[in-house]
Write a structure and sequence with these properties.
The complex is a heterodimer of chains A (142) and B (320). By secondary structure, chain A is an alpha/beta fold. Chain A is built from five helices and five strands; from the N terminus they run H-E-H-E-E-H-E-H-E-H. Chain A has one domain: Rossmann fold. In chain A, helix 1 runs antiparallel to helix 5 and helix 2 crosses helix 5. The longest helix of chain A has 17 residues. Chain A is globular, with a radius of gyration of 14 Å. In chain A, 45% of the residues are buried. Chain B has one domain. In chain B, helix 6 runs parallel beside helix 12. Chain B is globular. At the A-B interface, helix 1 and strand 2 of A face helix 3 and helix 9 of B. Chain A: It comes from Pleomorphomonas carboxyditropha. Chain A: Its cofactor is [4Fe-4S] cluster. Chain A: This is NADH-quinone oxidoreductase subunit B. Chain A: Keywords: 4Fe-4S, Cell membrane, Iron, Iron-sulfur, Membrane, Metal-binding.
C-alpha cells in the first residue's frame, strides 16, 4: 500500500444526503458521530457541509419523486472517486414505502451503490461497519 | 544587505513563520479537536489528524466551478497563506525569538491579521455560489464587529507599554515584550484585565470557531465561502486558518503574558501557553456552546467585548 493510500484511508470525509427519509436514519447518523460510545471521528471521519469536500456519501430514504433530481444532481457534484453507502432499508428496497406512488427507488436503479447498511433504522455499530467497509472500497479506488 | 534578507526569508519561510508555524498550527488544531472530543467523552481523532487531512486534500484535484472568477478563486488561498506566514514571523517568542524591525511594526501585523477574513470574502464572492455570497456578507458583518475589541485591547497595551518606555505609544511588539520582561507581565496588572478579556473574546470569532463560526456554518450555508473549494485550494485555506491560530494566540501571549525563560525553554513555555489558550479559550467554548445567529453575534460583540475594550483603554490611560 502506497503512502498516499495510507493517508487517504485515515481521512475519509462523509456527506449525508436525505432522499426523502423519515429522519430515523439521519438521527442514527448523528448518533454515530456524536454519542461517546460510537464516535466515528476517531477513524478520521468528519461530516462535511459541502458535497465537493466529500469522499464517502451516505444516502438515507426511499428516493421520493420530489427529491430524485436533486439527489442525483448532488451526487454528481461529489468528486470521483466516491463511495456510495445506502443507509437503512429504504434506499435498498424501499422498505415500508416500497410500492408507494411517489417512490422512485430503490436507489440502485439510478446510482451505483457500493455498501448497503440494513436496518430500520440501522444501529450505529452497523453504520460504523458500513463506513469501515466503504473506506476499504474507497482506498482500492485510489 | 543580503545577510539581513536571508535572515528575514528564514524567519518568514522556516522559523517562526512558514514551516514551523504550519506544523505548530496543525498540532494546535489537532489538540483542539481532541480536547473537544474528550470534553464530550468521545475518543476523538489522533493528534496528527489535521496533517492527514491536509495531505489528503493535497492529493486530490481542485475543481473550478463554472461561472467563477478563476484567477481570484485559485489565488486567494495563496494570498492568505503568504500573509499569515509573514504575520507568524512577526510574533515574538519571549526569551527565544525577537522579530526583526524590518518586518514591520504592529500596525502591519494588524493589517495582516485581517487578510484571511478578506480572502474568505473574496473567495466566497469569486466562487459564484449564492452560499458563498451569504458567507461573504456574514464574514463582513462579524469582522466589523470583532475588529473593535481587538484594536481597543491592542491600543490599551501599547499605551501602557509606551508609558514605561517614555513614548506616547509602543508600536513594536518586541518592545512591548521587553517592557513586560522588565516590569512584570501585563496579565498581573488588574487595570489591563478588561483589555485581556476583550482580546480573549475576539479569538474564537477571528478563528471562525463555535459559537462564532457563522460565516462557515456547515448546516446552514454549507460552509459558505469554502463550499466550492476542493483539493489543494481547500487545503491551502485550511493551512491559512491553522497559521492564523498561531498568529492570533501568539499575539495574545506577546501582549499579555510573555514570561518564558531565555533559550530553548522559552520556546517550550510559549508552546505550552498556546496549548492552554487553545484548550481553555477555544475548545471549551466550542464544546459548550452552539452556534449563534449572525445578528446575535454582532450585537454580542458590539455590546460586551467592545465595552470591555473601551473600559480597558480608559482604565489603562487613566492609570498612566
Amino acid at each position: 500500500m502506497g503512502f498516499m493510500q495510507k493517508v487517504f484511508r485515515r481521512s475519509p470525509w462523509l456527506y449525508r444526503i436525505n432522499a426523502g427519509s423519515c429522519n430515523g436514519c439521519d438521527v442514527e447518523l448523528a448518533t454515530t458521530a456524536c454519542i461517546p460510545r460510537y464516535d466515528v471521528e476517531r477513524l478520521g471521519c468528519q461530516y462535511c457541509g459541502s458535497p465537493k469536500h466529500a469522499d464517502i456519501v451516505l444516502i438515507t430514504g426511499p428516493l421520493t419523486a420530489r427529491v430524485k433530481d436533486k439527489v442525483l444532481r448532488l451526487w454528481e457534484e461529489i468528486p470521483d472517486p466516491k463511495v456510495t453507502v445506502a443507509v437503512g432499508i429504504c434506499p435498498i428496497s424501499g422498505g415500508v414505502f416500497r410500492d408507494g406512488l411517489p417512490i422512485e427507488g430503490p436507489l440502485d436503479r439510478w446510482l451505483p451503490i457500493d455498501v448497503n447498511v440494513q436496518g430500520c433504522p440501522p444501529r450505529p455499530q452497523a453504520i460504523i461497519e458500513g463506513i469501515a467497509k466503504a473506506i476499504e472500497v474507497w482506498s482500492d479506488r485510489q | 544587505m543580503p545577510d539581513n534578507i536571508l535572515t528575514l526569508l528564514f524567519a518568514v519561510l522556516v522559523f517562526p513563520g512558514g514551516l514551523f508555524a504550519l506544523a505548530f498550527g496543525l498540532i494546535l488544531r489537532g489538540l483542539d479537536r481532541r480536547a473537544v472530543a474528550r470534553m464530550q467523552r468521545r475518543v476523538g481523532p489522533p493528534l496528527i489528524q489535521p496533517f492527514i487531512d491536509i495531505l489528503k486534500l493535497m492529493g486530490k484535484r481542485t475543481m473550478v466551478p463554472e461561472g467563477s472568477n478563476t484567477f481570484v478563486f485559485l489565488w486567494a488561498p495563496v494570498v492568505a497563506v503568504a500573509a499569515m506566514a509573514v504575520a507568524a514571523a512577526m510574533i515574538p517568542i519571549a526569551g527565544f525569538y525577537r522579530p526583526s524591525a524590518d518586518l514591520g511594526d504592529m500596525l502591519v501585523l494588524l493589517y495582516l491579521v485581517t487578510v484571511p477574513a478578506v480572502v474568505l470574502m473574496l473567495a466566497g464572492s469569486a466562487s459564484g455560489s449564492p452560499f458563498g455570497a451569504i458567507g461573504f456578507s456574514r464574514e463582513m458583518a462579524i469582522m466589523l464587529a470583532y475588529e473593535g475589541p481587538l484594536l481597543l485591547a491592542v491600543v490599551a497595551v501599547a499605551m501602557v507599554a509606551g508609558h514605561h518606555l517614555g513614548q506616547p505609544i509602543a508600536l513594536s511588539l518586541a518592545d512591548i515584550v521587553a517592557v513586560q520582561r522588565q516590569q512584570g507581565a501585563f496579565i498581573l496588572d488588574p487595570m489591563l484585565w478588561p483589555a485581556l478579556l476583550a482580546y480573549l473574546s475576539f479569538i474564537p470569532a477571528n478563528l471562525g470557531f463555535s459559537p462564532f463560526d457563522i460565516p462557515e456554518a456547515e448546516s446552514e450555508v454549507l460552509e459558505g465561502p469554502l463550499l466550492e473549494y476542493s483539493g489543494p485550494a481547500l487545503g491551502l485555506l485550511k493551512l491559512a486558518s491553522a497559521l492564523k491560530s498561531v498568529v492570533v494566540i501568539g499575539l495574545g501571549i506577546a501582549l499579555f503574558c510573555p514570561i518564558g525563560p531565555s533559550g530553548g525553554a522559552g520556546l517550550l513555555v510559549w508552546a505550552l501557553q498556546c496549548a492552554v489558550v487553545t484548550v481553555c479559550g477555544v475548545s471549551l467554548a466550542k464544546a459548550a456552546l452552539g452556534r449563534m445567529r449572525i445578528d446575535q453575534a454582532v450585537l454580542f460583540y458590539l455590546k460586551w467585548p467592545e465595552l470591555l475594550g473601551i473600559a480597558g483603554l480608559v482604565l489603562a490611560v487613566a492609570n498612566l
